[in-house]
Structures are given as structure tokens and as C-alpha cells.
Amino acid sequence: MESRDRVLVMGILNVTPDSFFDGGCWLTPEKALRRAEQMVDEGADILDIGGESTRPGAKPIDPEEELERILPVVERIDRSIPCLISIDTMHARVAQEALQAGAVMVNDVSAMRADPRMADVCAEGGAYVILMHMQGMPRTMQVSPAYEDVVDDVHAFLAKRCHEAMAAGVSRRKLIVDPGIGFGKKLEHNLDLINRLRELRDLGAPILVGVSRKSFLGRLLDLPVEDRLEGTIAANAVAIARGADIIRVHDVKEGRRTADVAWWFR
User: Is 185 tagged catalytic?
Assistant: First the structure.
């Protein structure tokens, strides 16, 4: 999955009513397909389809409801658009059915802790797996997060999760790690992780970073979510210069151009 000649861009496609930025925008399969086509035209290498919001304070939903949201979208994109499809889920059943429908990647913000079947499903399906660090779960993760040293703690967590994924049969070459910017982190934790991102490279897996329009940028700029594009561009450029291999973005055109320039400063 790691590209030798450029940074990969993952476009965010949330088919949810309550995601923090694009919730409610792409609820029908028709709207989602049009948005997917636009993102690929703008340079997305991967489309990350989510049916359950993981914003701070979000309530979990039943896998059945999640499947009703995402499966028609995965199936239509797989038939129509030449791109890699990722499914953003913590539920093994959702991952399994999405992989059967055409997805090739599972983006699990719990790093396969929320569902004990997830590792087996990913191994059996031959999926790429994104393992993300999160302190707590979405409903509670921003309640007083604390670390001894956030980079060391995240590194140790991801190393353990990589080891356990491989023990379950997931190929090392199909693992991707994500430090979880904004997931159980204070402002200073997010800044430390981006500045010291290169320390995660010895995990031996491509690094994905997701900073798109997140609240830490709002705190730095004192701006609402709709006005955080420039902050997102700046943070992505720094992350790429520090070693990120994949950036996860809402704004694909700007993300692609950022990645293509920032690559030269690694």
C-alpha cells in the first residue's frame, strides 16, 4: 500500500446523518456515487466509506443499520469506479459483508479491539487493515485524555496491535498505522504526534494521518469546521514532510495538490 513515488490520498465518504463535517450530505446511494466519482476525478486513490459516526460523543449504532447505509454504496462504487474501497467500521460483520461486496481495506478506529472477530475476518478476507490509536471510545475519548509521553504511548500501542493482527493471520505488508489525531487527544498531544510522526516509521507499516477539518485546527485558528480548509492543508503538508504516507481528507482536490508538493520535502 505504501507508494514509492507519491503520497496516497484517501477521500472521506460518510453516509451518515451525524458526522461532524459532511453528515447528511451523501445519504442516498445516488448522491454517494456522484460524490465518489467527483473525489476520484480530483485525485483520490482510496475511498473510505463510513456508516457510523466516530466524532467525539457519538453514539454507537447497530451493525444492521450500518450495513443498510454502506452496502448499496460499496456495491455501486465497486461496479462503477476504478479505485480502492475502504470500509470505516468497528464491526466484524460489517467488514465481512463490505469485503464481499468489493471493499479491499478495513479502517478500524478501535484497532480491532471493539469486535473480537475483526482480526479473523480481515485475515480471511485478505484485507488491508488500518490500525488506529484511540484512548477510550468515541463517546468518552475526549474526557480528560492523559499520557506519560503521547508519542511513546501511541507507538507502544500500535506495535502491540500490529503484532496481534499478524498473530491472527493478517499479512504485515497489509498493515497501515494511524496515530489517531483527535481521538482521545488534547491539542498538545495532536501537535506532538504530528511533529514527531517520523518516530512511528520503525513500526514497518505505512502511516496514515487524518487531520481534515478537526477540532484541534479550530482551536488553533479559532474557526468553525467550515473554515478549516487552509489549516487542514498546512497540517497535512507538515505531516507528509514528517513521514505520512497516506492522508485522509474531505477535500480531495486540495489534498491531492498538497500531497504532490509536500512529497518533495520528506
Answer: no
